[in-house]
Write a structure and sequence with these properties.
The chain is an alpha/beta fold and 532 residues long. It is built from 18 helices and 16 strands. Strands 10-14-13-11-12 form a five-stranded antiparallel sheet. Strands 5-2-1-9 form a four-stranded parallel sheet. Helix 3 packs parallel to helix 6 and helix 11 runs antiparallel to helix 12. The chain is globular, with a radius of gyration of 28 Å. 36% of the residues are buried.
């Protein structure tokens, strides 16, 4: 594979303008002849669908949520940066470019970062035009605040709900194009396969997650806007629904991964509080504008925060990085936090935490002002921890932010899903699990031999075709299930009442004779429940 970044030649300040001018244009009348498939309807996918639909292209947008409004972009809190220099504090496109490259540990592709900085102002204008209610100053102009890794105020925000408001703005703009007939949205659809023709993505195979129907869709171009790869870390701030199916299937078709190790660690998350957690909760970056981060100077100091005198507190970010202070870049702040905790000065029950203290800001600005800026974040923190952040400092600790993790349930909480081993391969066991309210997830054998997509009409989906195929030997016998459904329920009631022992039940269900109708109906229901 040839790795080509396709960065235009020339000076960094001119290369993208020159490349854009040299691109071939599409006549407005001809745009109606072209179609684009967009997989994912978060901020990237939703805004792309709205913009391309506005330009006149025919768009098909797919998402696996029941509504585009449930994309995980909604969880973003702090704000979005743009080099508009509204605060007249020396900001510029080049300064945003420099801060972004530096904040990315100098691993980002500089030409692309410069293009991002160039477009940042236009992005804010687009969001405002879509109705995003950014915070404003008293005179009506857009307000700004600071973010980590910057010494200027360039962050546009909507309290601590910026992602939600941005997503709703993109969704409304996309729905406008849906009404105009230029965008078709397919919710609850999972991309099973990317269709590649002569090295170019030209379509997808999708499955309706409600009906199981599999359909093929073709287009002149395909945009994958499905978010990052998930299920790699034990805990993170991402929702459990975040996954990597679309980009993994693109990878299987020959697409390359760019920086698969580039994981962002966010320094301000609520620390782990127990083994029952499936994810962590982000506390917005914006809190570091007015909050001061500290730990006790003495190791093992377990006194409440409000009983530790000022001269016994170590404001370690302000001490180590005086130019940036509490607004140090995320990776630097995260590493510093881990160091002080490893040194034995962490706070909280686990010792994996530091204090984010807004008491000075509350005294200087007043509680009302802090509530206007961060009220929803304070409420979220109090609901999760049971501590009032107006009276006690928040406890925070770094967490994986852009890649979500998968938790193995080892707590006393009873699961609603069970992973089956050898016995779980038995079809009747799946029937019993369904009757008693368990979602039994099987261990897949011969995984490489299974076919997960139908790139043409001639390919077969063994398990799916059993559900929806034409009547025949391999298709589930639905009439048999219908005739003996009452018998199934009687078996389940007998087990619940203790009148049918497990030994007797297993003897009945393993007798695969023509006369054993109970076994056959259990087997058919199990085939319908079991999934790949």
């Amino acid at each position: 594979m040839k790795l080509d970044a396709r960065v235009p030649p020339g000076p960094i300040e001119q290369k993208w303008g020159k490349a854009k001018f040299e691109m071939k244009l599409v006549n407005p009348a001809n745009k109606r002849k072209y179609s684009v498939i967009i997989v994912g309807t978060g901020l990237a996918g939703g805004s792309a669908a709205a913009t391309l639909g506005e330009l006149g292209y025919n768009i098909k947008a797919f998402c696996y949520q029941d509504s585009p409004r449930r994309a995980h972009s909604i969880a973003a809190q702090g704000g979005i940066n743009a080099a508009k220099n509204y605060q007249n504090d020396g900001d510029s496109v080049y300064r945003l470019f420099y801060d972004t490259v530096k904040g990315g540990d100098f691993r980002a592709r500089e030409a692309n970062v410069y293009r991002l900085a160039e477009l940042s102002g236009n992005i804010i204008d687009q969001c405002v035009a879509q109705g995003v209610p950014f915070a404003r100053e008293y005179g009506g102009v857009l307000a700004n605040r600071s973010f980590g890794g910057a010494q200027v105020s360039r962050t546009f925000y909507a309290r601590g709900q910026t992602g939600q408001q941005l997503l709703l703005g993109a969704y409304q703009a996309m729905e406008r194009q849906v009404q105009a007939g230029r965008v078709a949205v397919f919710p609850h659809h999972e991309m099973l396969e990317l269709v590649v023709v002569e090295g170019r993505a030209r379509g997808i195979i999708a499955r309706d997650m409600e009906t199981g129907e599999i359909s093929a869709h073709e287009a002149d171009a395909v945009i994958l806007a499905t978010g990052g790869y998930g299920n790699l870390f034990f805990l993170s701030t991402n929702a459990k629904g975040c996954n990597a199916t679309a980009i993994w299937r693109a990878y299987k078709k020959g697409a390359a991964f760019a920086n698969p190790c580039f994981t962002q660690i966010h320094p301000t998350c609520i620390p782990v509080s127990g083994d029952y957690q499936s994810k962590l909760t982000l506390m917005s970056e914006s809190l570091r504008n007015d909050g001061r981060i500290w730990v006790p100077k003495k190791k093992g100091d377990t006194r409440p925060a409000n009983r530790i005198p000022e001269d016994e507190r170590d404001y370690y970010l302000e001490r180590m990085y005086p130019s940036f202070g509490n607004l140090s870049p995320r990776d630097i702040a995260s590493r510093a936090t881990k160091r002080v905790c490893d040194d034995g000065r962490g706070v909280g029950p686990t010792g994996l935490g530091v204090y984010l203290d807004l008491s000075d800001a509350i005294r200087q600005l007043g509680r009302q002002t802090i509530t206007e800026r961060y009220g929803n974040l304070f409420e979220m923190y109090e609901r999760i921890t049971g501590e009032n952040p107006y009276e006690l400092p928040m406890r925070i600790f770094p967490a994986v932010h852009l890649i979500e993790g998968l938790l193995a349930n080892t707590s006393d909480i009873q699961p609603t899903a069970v992973h089956a081993d050898t016995q779980g391969q038995s079809f009747p066991v799946f029937t019993l699990a369904t009757l008693f309210g368990f979602d039994l997830m099987p261990r897949i054998r011969n995984f490489k031999d299974l076919i997960f997509f139908r790139a043409s009409e001639h390919l077969i989906y063994p398990h799916i075709d059993e559900l929806f195929g034409e009547c025949g030997r391999s298709v589930i016998d639905w009439p048999l299930i219908e005739r003996h459904w009452q018998d199934l329920m009687q078996v389940a009631i007998s087990i619940s009442a203790g009148r049918l022992s497990s030994a007797t039940l297993m003897r009945r269900l393993r007798s695969n004779s023509r006369k054993n109708r109970i076994y056959k109906v259990f087997r058919e229901v199990g085939r319908s429940v079991r999934t790949v």
